[in-house]
Design goal:
There is one protein chain. By secondary structure, the protein is α+β, with helices and mostly antiparallel strands. It has 2 domains: 70 residues, no CATH class; 124 residues, Lysozyme (Orthogonal Bundle), CATH 1.10.530. The protein has 8 helices and 4 strands, in the order E-H-E-E-E-H-H-H-H-H-H-H. Helix 2 runs parallel beside helix 5, helix 5 crosses helix 6 and helix 6 crosses helix 8. The protein is globular and about 50 Å long.
């Protein structure tokens, strides 16, 4: 899951650098972790507001790559069957292949129910707080709630794109707006293209 975030540059440009170095420090602290990469970009709009984003969607903006976003996946023994009961329940409830659910969880959090991305996505299926709220997920770190909410959202996307799994996965990663902007094609973001490919590879593996 992805999201944009911004802060005002009017008051003091030092705010940006504080954020930058806090995030950098956090990455250094988790240097021993398994990390999957995306990019973080910045741009300043006409009103002088500084924007930071991992999904550059504004075609008029002049983005500058400032650092690699790294999703933190801590070392631990991965048990891909640990959440099978919750996956099975969500699969039956929302009519989604359990292998696909496992593939999304693998790509999003590597089965770490405490995973948090630098942009705030939480839990097994990496729900953003706003998305979790819309899905009525009270605790995104609760495995059962997170899986049910994430699968419900995935089911909605599959209905929205008439069963087109590629577009559903692209929207899960980059957002529905990004898919619509590019005329219902996979957005030309390297992170999103890699994400769709990675989930499909996991999906094929789990189906065997």
């Amino acid at each position: 899951m992805t999201s944009n975030f911004h802060t005002s540059n009017r008051r003091n440009k030092r705010i940006f650098f504080r954020i930058f170095f806090l995030v950098l420090a956090a990455f250094s602290f988790f240097s021993a972790a398994d990390l999957s990469h995306a990019d973080i970009y910045k741009y300043v709009d006409e009103e002088g507001v500084l924007h930071l984003t991992n999904v550059p969607t504004n075609s008029k903006a002049k983005y500058t790559l400032i650092m690699r976003e790294r999703r933190i996946l801590l070392h631990y023994d991965i048990d891909v069957t640990k959440f099978d009961e919750y996956i099975s329940n969500a699969s039956n409830k929302h009519n989604i292949d359990p292998a696909l659910i496992r593939a999304v969880i693998k790509a999003e959090s590597n089965f770490n129910h405490r995973a948090v991305s630098p942009v705030g996505a939480q839990g097994l299926m990496q729900l953003m707080p706003a998305t979790a709220s819309q899905l009525k997920v009270d605790d995104a770190f609760h495995p059962e709630q997170n899986i049910d909410g994430g699968v419900r959202y995935l089911s909605y996307l599959l209905r929205l794109y008439r069963g087109n799994l590629t577009l559903a996965l692209a929207a899960y990663n980059a957002g529905e707006g990004a898919v619509a902007k590019y005329h219902y094609q996979v957005p030309p973001y390297q992170e999103t293209k890699n994400y769709v490919k990675r989930v499909m590879n996991f999906y094929n593996s789990f189906r065997r």
